[in-house]
Specification:
By secondary structure, this protein is α/β, with parallel strands linked by helices. The chain contains 23 helices and 30 strands. Helix 2 crosses helix 16 and helix 7 packs parallel to helix 12. The protein is globular and about 70 Å long. The chain starts with 15 loop residues before the first strand and ends with a helix. Bound molecules: ligand MGD (2 copies), iron/sulfur cluster and molybdenum atom (MO).
Length: 730
Amino acid sequence: MQRLLYTERAVDRLGVWTHYRTCNLCEAMCGLEIRLDGETIQSIRGDREDPFSRGHICPKALALEDLHNDSDRLKHPMRKTGSGWERISWDQAFSEVAERLRSIQNQYGRSAVGMYLGNPNVHNLGSMLVLSSLVKAIRTENLFTATSVDQLPHHFAARHMFGHYFLLPIPDIDRTDFFLILGANPVASNGSLMTAPGVTQRLRDIRARGGKIVLIDPRRTETAAEADAHHFIRPGHDVLLLLALLETILREGLARPGRLAEFCTDFSELDSLVEGYAPERVAPRVGIDAVEITAMAREFAGAKRAVCYGRMGLSTQAFGGICQWLINVLNIVTGNLDRAGGAMFTRPALDIVTKERVREFGRWHSRVRGLPEFGGELPSAALAEEILTPGDGRIRAMITVAGNPVLSTPNGGRLDRAFSELDFAVAVDIYINETTRHADIILPPTTGLECDHYDVIFHTLAIRNTAKFSPALFEGAEDSRHDWQIYRELARRLASDEHPFDEHHPLNQATPAQMIDFGLRAGPYGKDGLSLDKLRETPHGIDLGALEPCLPDRLFTGDGLIRIAPVELTRDLERVRGLLEGTGGNGSLSLGDLTLVGRRHLRSNNSWMHNSERLVKGRELCTLMIHTRDARARGIADGQKVTVASRVGRIELEAAVSENIMPGVVSIPHGWGHDREGVGLSVATTHAGASINDLTDEALLDRLTGNAAFNGVPVSVEAIAAGAAIDATE
Ligand SMILES: Nc1nc2c(c(=O)[nH]1)N[C@H]1C(S)=C(S)[C@@H](COP(=O)(O)OP(=O)(O)OC[C@H]3O[C@@H](n4cnc5c(=O)[nH]c(N)nc54)[C@H](O)[C@@H]3O)O[C@H]1N2
Ligand SMILES: Nc1nc2c(c(=O)[nH]1)N[C@H]1C(S)=C(S)[C@@H](COP(=O)(O)OP(=O)(O)OC[C@H]3O[C@@H](n4cnc5c(=O)[nH]c(N)nc54)[C@H](O)[C@@H]3O)O[C@H]1N2
Ligand code: SF4
Ligand SMILES: [Mo]
């Protein structure tokens, strides 16, 4: 049993007391009410007094307890031996890691050490504030993160239109009358780049007040059940739909940009850019009727307050960047950007949208394929080849921090092989999993309930301005380290005369909580008295109000103008022309007659929460969803084992035959495939599933931004043991 850290508590007669915090597992920032009997967790419930989440939670919140008590979770540095792993001291671990990294960089150059920073970093306070010191100490051009398998296209569009990669417009769903959603499933994901705890209720509220929800998705999802209309779309063809919506609005004179017109450049260019994309022209490719597209355009333009939003289905496909640009344009021409009920910007208490963080593009390129850098990162789809391809500049060592790229990046099977060829690998991670099993040394930090928490990122992406601080509940295991202590110590040990580590610099001394206090006081509400102490006194969090218009003041374009048609984006229209004409603008490698897309499930969280029995028990989650017609044609019955093959690999899993997917499309969730040698996850390996990323293809990219195109992969599907299959589906 770990010691309690949080002691400012009111204990009732029976010794039961309550701790309030924010769940940091996904983007929704739900408030939790944790009841404890002494030091034992009795229950985890939604905190009804949290003004933002109002009592909402999902089943994953309960898994925080499992994570805390998981005996597979690492708590001390581990070194690989000939036959397994041995515990070593922190001092030994730090000196060995620093020594190996330094010697590889001395011999082969600084970029011979690569880094992959995974998703949980953006949910961890210590990483958000201190990981950059380790990144700076490594100084590699081979930096990879989950951004390029996720939301890079949003950043790319924001950077070129609004001047800042993090000036991301958030759909103001609490006030909208028309919500047009493309390629997102908030009912299962709880919302992304749209922190909106209890999103299902918020969707229902739109309809209850007479508004409308329209969803575009090749699968009839959990969100479709909450929508007024759902349209199947051929994966990867949204760009044509968006162009047709815009073409109709402009041609029919429905554009009403209002005050936005005063600070937009190149407005007049739009007509010519969308020419040739009339609904009748695109409909056969998109798979949605021209009459429907026209009606959708008129309704969107005619709604009092409307917002268009596109997420994973749009950003992780071959036209991610241009889709995110067109979504912004659609919101602008209808006057819905920066207006209540449209797409708005936050004013977070701790503001990371500053001029120091604007982010540049294309300052260097990846060695093998020449893919462009963005904000210091290269596309993760290029990682394996940078390790495997011999020659100068090859990656010889990897540092992974809270990432599992073997399961999370395209052609993960190849990356799995690549990791086994490294000279040295170190992982900052809490488990021995598919990626960290390749490490020579694992440095496990404290996690979850053992950490102070403030959501640096997701307050910036929320549908209301809010602030909340959660103190650590439990102390870490004896002789454990926080993530930020690990980064700082490694940075210190990697310093040289040329690049010294300044022990006395406030940023190298402060704890994350102290840094938050500083950020809050310097932030937009600091003058009104917002500070860490204030947040400590308000354990349910503070609501700072609805989002407010802030343009043009908040733009970072220099001249205070929105670039509505930046050449960095419009140049990609040439590739779109190819898609329209069917000459392969999609870059599709046609080696299968079905098209693969991804999906998420409420009880799963990317690649790492499958070691919680309560989340994985019951019906198999990792299945191939396939339309009844396509199943029948292949003699596949519901529940039957099938083989799915793509250009890069082949996996086996169960089929789930359904009418809820577009004919010709199949869907597999990501993050599974745990049955690999050496994985130290006792529950997950008994619910192993298979990895979709053994099928996704590193060659399929959004060529504009370098983001991985997980959606739209050509695959073929075969029954493993046909037999009685056909009868069973009748
Ligand atoms: N085919 C397909 N692939 C996808 C996606 C998809 O939709 N389809 N989605 C993509 C997206 S959006 C994302 S964000 C990525 C996510 O993929 P990754 O960036 O690889 O992140 P996770 O899968 O969440 O892996 C998290 C790792 O962090 C570790 N971890 C958990 N908590 C902590 C902690 O507190 N500290 C530390 N140091 N480690 C911790 C876990 O053990 C695990 O190894 O996957 C991408 N991959
Ligand atoms: N329960 C749970 N919640 C999560 C996560 C999780 O793993 N589990 N992961 C978190 C992370 S890291 C992220 S980034 C967010 C993602 O949040 P979302 O983007 O809401 O999540 P997805 O379920 O990936 O939704 C993508 C949808 O796009 C559809 N789609 C696929 N291809 C296309 C296409 O070409 N066009 C269109 N229009 N649609 C397409 C898919 O069918 C799917 O329904 O979720 C977060 N929340
Ligand atoms: S929706 Fe997300 S933040 Fe809310 S309880 Fe579930 S995992 Fe936690
Ligand atoms: Mo993500």
